[in-house]
Specification:
Elements: E1 10-18, E2 31-36, E3 44-50, E4 60-65, E5 79-84, E6 87-92, E7 95-100, E8 117-125
Antiparallel strand pairs: 1-2, 1-8, 2-3, 3-4, 5-6, 6-7
């Protein structure tokens, strides 16, 4: 993916939502944010898990910055998760930057990553986290996606 030029209020994301969302309200169905970026942080990528008791501002999240002050808009980057029954690892450009397991959950919270999920890609504008667009916001903006792949390990 090549992310937009940026500015306040832009919110590109590559994420997955639990396939049972029609029967289980968010965040009980689970959400895996493979990649989120907010326009005011053009060199930072976030990876997050949302579930019951750990969502929104209390989600399990990690972030990484590109080396040497580079920006996510400068070239295409590869964002990935490796998702196993009790481990989810987050990568940018083949570099691991976060690992989450059930041990990271708040006491009594459920690990809800044991059922099918579906993929979403979007470029949102505005919201509580990225804020509203302002004079720094580049509009129109685009998020370019070259490919999306899903692999399954043979057992």
């Amino acid at each position: 993916m090549k992310l937009p030029a940026g500015g306040q209020g832009l919110w590109p994301a590559f994420w997955m939502l639990g396939g049972n969302i029609d029967r289980t309200p968010w965040s009980g169905a689970g959400e895996i944010d493979v990649m989120e970026q907010i326009g005011r942080e053009p060199g930072t990528v976030h990876g997050t898990l949302h579930g019951p008791g750990y969502s929104g501002a209390h989600a399990l999240t990690g972030e990484t910055k590109l080396a040497d002050g580079k920006m996510l808009r400068d070239r295409f980057h590869t964002f990935a998760v490796e998702w196993e029954p009790a481990t989810i690892r987050f990568y940018v450009d083949d570099r691991l930057y976060e690992t989450r397991t059930p041990a990271d959950l708040p006491a009594g919270a459920a690990w809800v990553y044991d059922h099918p999920f579906f993929v979403l890609l979007n470029l949102a504008v505005g919201g509580d986290w990225p804020g509203n667009p302002d004079g720094t916001t580049v509009l129109p903006s685009t998020m370019q996606v070259d490919w999306v792949r899903v692999y399954s390990r043979s057992r």
